[in-house]
Amino acid sequence: MEPIQYLWKDRKRHFGLPLSFTRYRLSDDRLFCERGFFNIKADEVLLYRVRDLQLNMSLGQRIFGVGTVCVVSSDKSVPHLDLKNVKHPREVKELIHQNVEAAKDKRRMRTTEIMGDMDADDFSHDFDDADLDDMHGAE
């Protein structure tokens, strides 16, 4: 098994310094978050499941050159993942966005995404016997 090639790595930062045991990594198909020193908790989100990205930068974060990238996914186990206090948050958000789009294109998720956003009412139609006869040809 070959090791995962990471496109981006960072740690949660305090006062702009990576003084944390929370690590973030991005591969071409997954986003990883690993927390802890003795007891480690690792989460991952498949990029094709990402539904929305948001960038938050408070005044304190802007002073230290960090920000929080919020990732909203359709994953049941990790529906919301915050990459807190990462360096260059705008570039990180854009990198994640580009890889999410590539992952969705690779899996051909575009048509199912559109279908998933439509309401059930868009497809509902009251048929009567005359409509069915027209569709199948009157016998």
What does it look like?
The chain is α+β, with helices and mostly antiparallel strands and 139 residues long. It has one domain: PH-domain like (Roll). Helices cover 29% and strands 32% of the residues. It contains 4 helices and 7 strands. The chain has helices at 59-64, 89-106, 110-117, 129-136; strands spanning 8-11, 22-26, 30-35, 41-46, 50-56, 66-73, 80-87. The strands form 2 sheets. It has a 4-stranded antiparallel beta sheet with strand order 1-2-3-4, with no helix packed on it. Strands 5-6-7 form a 3-stranded antiparallel beta sheet. The chain is globular and about 40 Å long. The protein starts with 7 loop residues before the first strand and ends with a helix.
Indicate the topology:
Layout: E1 8-11, E2 22-26, E3 30-35, E4 41-46, E5 50-56, H1 59-64, E6 66-73, E7 80-87, H2 89-106, H3 110-117, H4 129-136
Antiparallel strand pairs: 1-2, 2-3, 3-4, 5-6, 6-7
Q: Nutshell version of this structure?
A:
Helices cover 29% and strands 32% of the residues. It has helices at residues 59-64, 89-106, 110-117, 129-136; strands at 8-11, 22-26, 30-35, 41-46, 50-56, 66-73, 80-87.
Looking at the structure, the CATH topology is PH-domain like
According to DSSP, the number of beta strands is: 7
Please report which band the strand proportion falls in: under 5%, 5-15%, 15-25%, 25-35%, 35-45% or over 45%: 25-35%
Report strand order across the widest sheet.
1-2-3-4
Largest sheet: 4 strands, antiparallel
| Name of the CATH architecture | Roll
Task: Look at the structure and give the mean pLDDT.
Answer: 84
Please estimate the helix content.
25-40%
Q: What is the global morphology?
A: globular
The top level CATH class name: Mainly Beta
